[in-house]
Design brief:
The structure holds two protein chains of two kinds. By secondary structure, chain A is an all-alpha fold. Chain A contains ten helices and no strands. Chain A has one domain. Chain B is elongated, with a radius of gyration of 31 Å. The N and C termini of chain B lie far apart (104 Å). The chains are: A mainly alpha, B alpha+beta.
Chain lengths: 210, 486
């Protein structure tokens, strides 16, 4: 436990905000990152994202609060995160990337820090804006997103030891890989379902006969 | 057996729990409305069936595919009995036939109708009939033809264009507006002398980039077989008290099925927050019952309220002047109070009459308390009497707590009277972000005005106190140090 949650590792993600390239390098080569902490970051992001959907001010909030389910929201954020990481891992494995799955998860998870930091004040801010002032709110969220995007870009670049162009190419391929993963998952689901139906029909047949 | 009974009972209980019984009770249709998130929300019935009128019940012989009806300035109801080539006139209550026109004098020679499709009565009580198979529109004064519109001549019209008038309307200046079969360029306008003066309210064809793309990559042979982008035809027409034309059309996107045209032919209709004036919002699926509403007629009911008639699902949609959906009722079927092929809608005082071309009947709908309260509240708001409208809206809320327009109505009144906090509460319930924002801005200013003085004073005091404390602390520290040394 100490290994994952030592003081340096717990708060290492703070360093990412100021010195992203150095800290990503240290994550890869000096084992400063921690997968559990990264997963906690994802969980936290799911939480603040759900909070934003439910509690953002009336003027900027078009979401029907009755349709928001916290567990589903967090689950889908988590799923998307894992999908991206596995997709990236499977692409970079083939493209001489030096990063391990562990590094990718850590880097992407830590990169969520600015988004988490922005979503809470933005949600609070949304309660004091009137129509015409929403731009402050959207700007805050937009800035967080851009920051997050840049961090992911730098992180992927550093852990795999890629050039910028190659990173962008792998990110596009990652999207493709994510679609393939979804397709495969649906295919497997369907196959398992068919096998299940087959076994179940044999079972009912036996039940009716004996 | 017992098991089945209990199962059935459980199912019924479940159905009761899931589909709450609205005030409609045993009506043959559901009354509903769409909320801000475009969910279907059941409401109490605004109108309930109040009997029907047929040619048989009137003793004039069954109607045969009647296509149109209208109400004259004196309250008489004129029905175009298309298949029988006659116009049947009913009294105000629609209980007795007042007269039947099947022949008339045209320049002192007897003449008859051939499939009269549309009727309209001008403000000076001339009966205009769209005599479709005779290719003319005639104006009758009693049994004499006083005006005839036929064979329009203009370079705007095709050589082989055949003038088949379907629907007709007349405004106070005697201009005749005609919807003709196959005429996609708009409503045809004729001056009182019967000369064609031009088109009116043309619906522009909207082509999406996607369609342009497909056009660009398809071959000439493919293009010839593709559907042409033709503007839709108008289906129904009505004139309001100020001479504005309400015209309905079938919109394949189900977004905008009605236009309010000013005398120059511009569309000046107002839409609500979802910018939707096309009937149903939810119409997915692949059955004949699915698909966008087919609006076949429109009626202006006074005080800015107008109703649209949908032939696909037999609904009547009612909107106010601002384009807010007020209520929806009606349905297809064979029970009393449902339609098979609704073609025309009219308002008779507090009642609504719908002409059905397949059942050869006129269905009458009576206003309920719920419908009356909404109509009255909207009318009061139209007249600018917000405070009295609030009373009506409150009563509406007692019957239907979730009605957004009622909450907005109350919220707006609070906004006008300066009670911003209550305005915010009701506007939020009504999901009106625009007006909520106005109320919120005012409320925020109030709070700031009330609290800014002491907040600023506090800041000033702190700013003044800071250097003092810092100096004091320094001195104390120095003293302590001195004490430790000494």
């Amino acid at each position: 436990m100490r290994k994952y949650f030592s003081k340096e590792r717990m708060f290492y993600f703070r360093r990412i905000l100021m010195h992203p390239l150095d800290s990503f390098y240290e994550i890869r080569h000096r084992e400063y990152g921690s997968v559990p902490v990264a997963l906690i970051c994802v969980l936290l992001f799911g939480l603040v994202f759900t909070m934003n959907r439910i509690f953002a001010g009336f003027i900027v909030n078009e979401v029907n609060p009755r349709t928001v389910n916290g567990l589903t929201e967090i689950g889908s954020v988590f799923l998307l995160f894992m999908l991206f990481c596995i997709g990236n891992w499977s692409v970079t494995c083939l493209m001489n990337g030096e990063g391990r799955l562990k590094d990718i998860i850590t880097v992407v998870g830590y990169s969520l820090t600015p988004l988490i930091a922005v979503y809470i004040p933005a949600t609070l801010l949304s309660h004091v804006v009137a129509a015409g002032e929403e731009v402050f709110y959207y700007f805050a969220i937009g800035a967080g997103l851009v920051w997050f995007g840049l961090l992911v870009l730098m992180g992927i670049m550093t852990v795999h030891n890629y050039s910028l162009l190659k990173t962008i190419v792998t990110l596009v391929l990652t999207l493709l890989a994510m679609f393939i993963l979804i397709f495969l998952a649906l295919l497997i689901y369907d196959l398992i379902n068919q096998v299940y139906i087959f076994i179940y029909s044999i079972y009912t047949e036996l039940i009716f006969r004996y | 057996m017992k098991k089945i009974t209990s199962l059935a009972l459980a199912c019924m209980l479940f159905a009761l729990a899931v589909f709450p019984v609205s005030a409609s009770g045993n009506l043959p249709y559901d009354s509903y409305i769409y909320d801000y998130w475009e969910n279907i929300v059941l409401t109490p019935a605004p109108y309930v069936p109040g009997g029907s009128v047929s040619g048989v019940s009137l003793g004039v012989g069954a109607f045969s595919r009647p296509q149109d009806m209208c109400v004259g300035p004196d309250g008489l109801v004129y029905v175009a009995d298309t298949g029988n080539n006659r116009i049947v006139i009913l009294n105000e209550e629609m209980t007795e036939p007042v007269g039947i026109i099947d022949s008339f004098y045209n320049n002192n020679s007897p003449d008859t109708f051939n499939a009269p499709f549309g009727v309209s009565v001008s403000p000076d009580n001339l009966l205009y009939v769209a005599d479709s198979q005779n290719m003319r529109v005639i104006a009758l004064d009693g049994d004499k033809v006083v005006h005839t519109v036929k064979d329009p001549q203009s370079e705007m019209l095709d050589e082989e264009f055949i003038f088949t008038p379907l629907k007709v309307a007349v405004d106070f200046a005697g201009r005749v507006y005609v919807i003709a079969r196959g005429m996609t360029q708009g409503i045809m306008v004729f001056n009182p002398e019967g000369e064609f003066t031009g088109f009116f309210g043309t619906i522009n064809v909207q082509i999406t980039p996607w369609e342009i793309f497909w056009r660009a990559i398809s071959t000439r042979a493919q293009r010839e077989r593709q559907q042409l982008f033709i503007a839709t035809e108008f289906t129904g027409i009505d004139v309001d008290s100020r001479g504005f034309i309400y015209a309905s059309n079938i919109d394949s996107d189900g977004l905008r099925a009605v236009r309010r045209l000013n005398p120059t032919g511009e569309d000046v209709i107002r839409t609500g927050e979802n910018e939707h004036l096309g009937g149903d919002l939810v119409w997915g699926g692949f059955t004949p019952y699915a698909g966008p509403s087919q609006i076949v007629d429109v009626v202006y009911r006074g005080k800015g309220i107008y109703s649209l008639l949908d032939s696909r699902r037999g609904r009547v949609f009612t909107y106010d002047r601002e384009g807010n959906l007020l209520y929806i009722f009606g349905g297809l079927g064979s029970q009393a109070g449902t339609f098979r092929q609704p073609v025309s809608i009219e308002a008779l005082g507090s009642r609504i009459a719908v002409l059905d071309a397949a059942r050869n009947e006129i269905m009458i709908f009576e206003e309920t308390l719920y419908g009356r309260l909404i109509n009255e509240a909207v009318a009061l708001r139209y007249d600018g009497d917000e405070s009295q409208a609030v009373e009506k809206w409150r009563q509406v809320l007692l019957l239907n707590e979730n009605l957004e327009i009622a909450n907005i109505g109350i919220g707006k009144a609070y906004l006008t009277s300066g009670d911003n906090l209550n305005a915010m509460k009701y506007l939020r319930l009504g999901q009106s972000r625009t007006y909520y924002s106005i109320a919120y801005r005012r409320y925020r200013n109030e709070v700031l005005k009330a609290n800014l003085p002491w907040v600023l004073t506090g800041v000033l005091v702190l700013a003044a106190a800071l250097p003092v404390t810092v100096t004091l602390r320094k001195r104390r520290r120095a003293k302590l140090k001195g004490g430790a040394d000494g």
